Amino acid sequence: MPEKKLTCIVCPVGCQLIAVQTDNGIEKVSGNRCKRGWDYAVAECTNPLRTVTSTVALLNGELAVAPVKTDKPIPRHMISACMQEINQCAVKAPVRVRDIIIHNVLNTDANIVITANINATNPDSSVCL
Question: Among 5, 108, 124, 121, which residue's Cα sits nearest to residue 63?
Fold first, then answer.
C-alpha cells in the first residue's frame, strides 16, 4: 500500500501526515491532531485543489499589471491551462477588488477576479477587453 507524506496546511500547527492509499481510496491517515487533518489528507490525495494567483496586463492604469486570483480553488492539474487563460487577458483601468475578468474559467465554476483597486491614468477608460 503506497504511503504519501503531507504537511497539513489547514491550521498553523502543520501536522506531519502519512496517508495510506489503496485502490478503494484512503485507508488510514496518521499524524493528524484533528479531523481537519484527515479531511485535508483525503482531499489532497484524491482531488487536490489550489487557488491560483497571478497578474494580468493593465491598460491605461497607474500600474502596468493588476493582481488576480481564482475566487475558489480549482483542480491542481488545471493550473497550467488556467494560467494560459489568464496570460491571454488584458483589462483597462480602473479596476476594483472582486471585478470578474474571466467568468467560469475552464468550466470550473471559478472566476478570475481582481484583488486590488487600481485607478486609470485617464479616468474615461473603464471597459474590460
Answer: 121
- From first CA to last CA, the distance across the chain in angstroms is 51
Find out whether 50 and 78 touch, Cβ atoms under 8 Å: no
The answer to whether the predicted template modeling score (pTM) of the entire model surpasses 0.70 is yes
pLDDT digit string, tens, across residues 21-52: 988 889 999 999 999 999 999 999 999 999 99
**How confident is the model over 46-93, as pLDDT tens digits?**
999 999 999 999 999 999 999 999 999 999 999 999 999 999 999 999
d(CA 106, CA 123): 32
Query: Residue 53 is placed in which grid cell?
Result: 494567483
Is 82 in contact with 75 (CB distance < 8 Å)?
no
Residues in the chain: 129
Which residue, among 95, 93, 99, has the nearest Cα to 61 in the 3D structure?
93
Q: Give the DSSP letter of residue 118.
A: B
Q: Is 127 exposed, middle or buried (0-12, 13-18, 19+ CB in 10 A)?
A: exposed
* CA dist., res. 114 & res. 58, Å (int): 11
